[in-house]
């Protein structure tokens, strides 16, 4: 019996999960890495530390299940998206800490590049600090001598998939999903776009080759390394959303709703991103619309760590269940502005509707409900862009353990919410894509057969209550925008 | 040797009462009524417990809850929602391997409280029954929890002619302690069976039980035989994995 090992290089930790042929989890290993904050708004990772951790979690996961490399049919990779690293081609040493997706140091670069929608047609993305292109540009501008070395082809750029594949196999490649988050790739040609690359002023010589998401890139310890997908695209794959119109929402630090739009990119008029969903070998790429919500689980963490009313994230449900409703309180967690569908960097968080009646139980409710209302806004945008209404929401991620949230989500969306039997869809997606590439699974139909419902929540809220709640939520959102002034940092 | 110290007994009663309420907080009045103690006595106990961090209140004169210090030194109180979050991966995997519905239970008074439920993986129509209460003596989950916990007071209802009570039940619990897993066969519903194993925290205390249930035709070789050992091994493996997640096992 052989297995597939998925490596999930995430924002706070690296994990390795070993799956069997039914998609069941055999073992899990995890190591956290340091979050480096040199200044407010700056977030870095030590790419060398991450590579060390990845080797360790692979070792640990195999040891836990008493497996050796010979038992592994393929490695799959999924990763935090947009995080950017540049390293020396000869020594493999990073020239600087990796700049993490949350990092806002490229604010000035973004302003200087002009109109927000300048690159949207070609890249599918609005100009924002979030994406990799501006981050590599910052490195070229700020690390001494880097631009010259890049011009001579001495250094290489990569997102975390590229960094890991290079270390695992010696090849300098990325996959289409990760490349679609750089702002340098053309959505139609699926190759580096000369105009985007030159506008961002990045030497072509340092960019990796763009490959499909499911093919053998090389091997590590004799095992094929056979997939790479950005984490949200991997979750789409793990939820087996292979048909146009199928989608999922993953609840982690933030939440990301992706809908498969088939072999054509759909441009959003409602604040969504156009991105590549996946590409299996030589088959045409599947595109996706993405609604990115910056803060969902992070709000629960904030409530735990900064407010201290709960001692673990799961306890929020216990506290929220001490009351029957939010008591009229709404919490809009625009901690670093609002992402989809608003894209307002001048917004900051508010708790609206406070009265003397509000208790910590009500606040806990408002914290959970914020995730559901933000999802509602993104679903509305999806429905408007696609012209078709969502009929079921497939969910995954850690927060799906929260039954109160899942029920409330079904209530405010007025559609059933379904959790699949493997909540670790990100790793599962990377495993599936790698397994397809080496013939461990024959086709996507076999993967679909592995998908099973683990739980389902039916909407049960009165329409009047839903409408009133949504109206209040929107009023609360209005109160967050325009908070930041010119003289604020 | 001196006899038991009354004030410590009373303090223990107060803590048990607060632990029972979970996140629900209690006032001095509520505690004094529930334990039939004078208010000043309760107040004195709470003040002392507060000083050592075993209870907390949000505001001066407000309601009380268990304090952080108590959690740090370890109690058998484990938030059911926390247990579900930690058990998610392993209960899913169990459902897939066994092809049956999975439930995780904890004791809640005299009943088993279902804190997590994974559907049988056949995409048939099922409803989440997290929050439901099950009788302990007629389910594998309950037998595990009571075998490694306290026998609750109260009459035991007979649901079928197979439901165990009295000495039979107590012998069955001895077996559960011996084997480290439990089953029920037609004991709650004719034709249904269940298998469960204990979840332990880092001190080795049983804090919950995980198990599967379904028709005897699928769970057992024949209707009057104990469950198939292959299914038992899946259940026990899931229980060990969740225990490891809680720090209950070092391997």
From TrEMBL, chain A:
Protein's pathway: Polyol metabolism; glycerol degradation via glycerol kinase pathway; sn-glycerol 3-phosphate from glycerol: step 1/1
Residues reported in the UniProt entry to bind sn-glycerol 3-phosphate: 11, 81-82, 130, 231
One Pfam family from the record: FGGY_C
Known role: Key enzyme in the regulation of glycerol uptake and metabolism. Catalyzes the phosphorylation of glycerol to yield sn-glycerol 3-phosphate.
InterPro entries from the UniProt entry: ATPase_NBD, Carb_kinase_FGGY, Carb_kinase_FGGY_CS, FGGY_C, FGGY_N, Glycerol_kin
Binding site for ADP: 11, 15, 253, 297, 398, 402
HAMAP family for the chain: Glycerol_kin
Top-level taxon of the source organism: Bacteria
Description of activity control: Inhibited by fructose 1,6-bisphosphate (FBP).
Family stated for the protein in its record: Belongs to the FGGY kinase family.
GO molecular function (one): kinase activity
UniProt keyword terms in alphabetical order: ATP-binding, Glycerol metabolism, Kinase, Nucleotide-binding, Transferase
Organism expressing this protein natively: Lentzea roselyniae
Name of the molecule in the record: Glycerol kinase
Residue sites binding ATP per the record: 11-13, 253, 297, 301, 398
From TrEMBL, chain B:
Protein species of origin: Lentzea atacamensis
Signal found in the keyword field: no
Biological processes per GO annotation: glycerol metabolic process; negative regulation of DNA-templated transcription
Pfam families registered for this protein in UniProt: HTH_IclR (PF09339), IclR_C (PF01614)
Limits of the HTH iclR-type domain: 5-68
Domain IclR-ED: 69-248
SUPFAM superfamilies registered for this protein in UniProt: GAF domain-like (SSF55781), Winged helix' DNA-binding domain (SSF46785)
Function summary: May be an activator protein for the gylABX operon.
Entry superkingdom: Bacteria
CDD domains: HTH_ARSR
InterPro entries found in the cross-reference section: ArsR-like_HTH (IPR011991), GAF-like_dom_sf (IPR029016), HTH_MetabolicPath_Reg (IPR050707), Tscrpt_reg_IclR_C (IPR014757), Tscrpt_reg_IclR_N (IPR005471), WH-like_DNA-bd_sf (IPR036388), WH_DNA-bd_sf (IPR036390)
PANTHER family for the chain: HELIX-TURN-HELIX TRANSCRIPTIONAL REGULATOR, ICLR FAMILY, HTH-TYPE TRANSCRIPTIONAL REPRESSOR ALLR
Gene3D superfamilies for this protein: 3.30.450.40, Winged helix-like DNA-binding domain superfamily/Winged helix DNA-binding domain
Keyword annotations: DNA-binding, Glycerol metabolism, Transcription, Transcription regulation
Gene Ontology terms, MF aspect: DNA binding; DNA-binding transcription factor activity
Name of this protein: Glycerol operon regulatory protein
């Amino acid at each position: 019996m052989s297995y597939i090992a998925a490596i999930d290089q995430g924002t706070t930790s690296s994990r390795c999960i070993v799956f069997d042929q039914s998609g069941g989890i055999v073992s899990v290993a995890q190591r956290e890495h340091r979050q480096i904050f040199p200044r407010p708004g700056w977030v870095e990772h030590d790419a060398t530390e991450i590579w060390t951790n990845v080797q360790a979690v692979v070792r640990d996961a195999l040891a836990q299940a008493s497996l050796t490399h010979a038992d592994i049919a393929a490695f799959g990779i999924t990763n935090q998206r947009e995080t950017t690293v540049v390293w020396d081609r000869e020594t493999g040493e990073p020239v600087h800490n990796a700049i993490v997706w949350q990092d806002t140091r490229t604010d000035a670069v973004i302003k200087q590049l002009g109109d927000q929608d300048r690159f949207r047609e070609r890249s599918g993305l609005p100009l924002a600090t979030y994406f990799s292109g501006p981050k590599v540009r910052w490195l070229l501008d700020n690390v001494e001598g880097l631009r010259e070395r890049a011009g001579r082809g001495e250094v290489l750029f990569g997102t975390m998939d590229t960094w890991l594949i290079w270390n695992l196999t010696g090849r300098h490649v990325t996959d289409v999903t990760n490349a679609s988050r750089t702002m340098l790739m053309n959505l139609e040609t699926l190759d580096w776009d000369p105009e985007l690359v030159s506008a961002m002023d990045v030497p072509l010589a340092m960019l990796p080759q763009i490959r499909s998401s499911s093919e053998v890139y090389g091997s590590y310890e004799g095992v094929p390394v056979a997939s790479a997908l950005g984490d949200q695209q991997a979750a789409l794959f793990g939820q087996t959303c292979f048909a146009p119109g199928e989608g999922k929402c993953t609840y982690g630090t933030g939440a990301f709703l992706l809908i498969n739009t088939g072999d054509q990119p759909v441009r959003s008029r409602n604040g969504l991103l156009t991105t590549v969903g996946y590409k299996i070998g030589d088959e045409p790429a599947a595109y996706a619309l993405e609604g990115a919500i910056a803060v969902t689980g992070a709000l629960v963490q904030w409530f735990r760590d900064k407010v201290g009313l709960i001692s673990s994230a799961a306890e929020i449900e216990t506290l929220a269940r001490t009351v029957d409703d939010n008591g009229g309180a709404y919490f809009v967690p625009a901690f670093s502005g609002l992402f989809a569908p608003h894209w307002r960097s001048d917004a900051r968080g508010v708790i609206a509707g406070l009265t003397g009646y509000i208790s910590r139980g009500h606040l806990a409710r408002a914290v959970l409900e914020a995730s559901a209302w933000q999802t509602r806004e993104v679903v509305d945008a999806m429905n408007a862009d696609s012209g078709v209404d969502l009929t079921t929401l497939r969910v995954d991620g850690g927060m799906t353990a929260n039954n109160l949230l899942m029920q409330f989500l079904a209530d405010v969306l007025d559609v059933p919410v379904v959790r699949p039997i493997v909540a670790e869809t990100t790793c599962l997606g990377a495993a599936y894509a790698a397994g397809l590439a080496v013939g461990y699974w024959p086709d996507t139909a076999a993967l679909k057969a592995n998908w099973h419902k683990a739980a389902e929540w039916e909407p049960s809220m009165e329409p009047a209550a839903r409408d009133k709640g949504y109206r209040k939520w929107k009023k609360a959102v209005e109160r967050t925008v325009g908070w930041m002034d010119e003289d604020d940092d | 040797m001196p006899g038991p110290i009354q004030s410590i007994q009373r303090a223990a009663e107060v803590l048990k009462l607060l632990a029972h309420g979970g996140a629900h907080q209690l006032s001095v009045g509520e505690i004094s009524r529930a334990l039939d103690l004078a208010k000043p006595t309760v107040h004195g106990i709470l003040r002392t417990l507060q000083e050592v961090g075993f209870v907390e209140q949000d505001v001066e004169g407000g309601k009380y809850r268990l304090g952080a210090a108590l959690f740090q030194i370890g109690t058998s109180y484990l938030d059911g929602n926390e247990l579900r979050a930690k058990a998610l991966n392993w209960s899913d995997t169990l459902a897939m391997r066994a092809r049956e519905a999975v439930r995780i239970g904890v004791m809640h008074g005299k009943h088993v409280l279902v804190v997590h439920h994974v559907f049988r993986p056949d995409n048939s129509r099922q409803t989440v029954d997290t929050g439901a209460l099950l009788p302990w003596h007629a389910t594998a989950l309950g037998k595990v929890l009571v075998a490694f916990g306290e026998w609750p007071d109260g009459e035991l209802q007979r649901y079928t002619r197979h439901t165990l009570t009295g000495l039979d039940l107590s012998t069955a619990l001895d077996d559960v302690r011996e084997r480290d897993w439990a089953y029920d066969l037609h004991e709650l519903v004719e034709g249904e069976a269940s298998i469960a194993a204990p979840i332990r925290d880092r001190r080795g205390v049983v804090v919950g039980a995980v198990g599967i249930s379904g028709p005897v035709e699928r769970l057992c070789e024949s209707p009057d035989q104990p469950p198939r050992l292959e299914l038992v091994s899946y259940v026990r493996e899931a229980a060990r994995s969740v225990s490891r997640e809680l720090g209950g096992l070092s391997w």
